[in-house]
Amino acid sequence: MRLDGIDCPESGQAFGSRAKAFTSELTFGKVFTVCPRNKDRYGRTVAEIVLPDGRDVSHELVRTGFAWWFRKYATHETELARLEAEAQAARRGLWIDPHPIPPWEWRNQRATASSHETGAVIGNRRSLVYHAPGCPNGAALSVQNRVVFASAAAAQAAGYRAGRDCHR
Question: pLDDT digits over 77-88, tens only?
Answer without folding.
Answer: 899 999 999 999
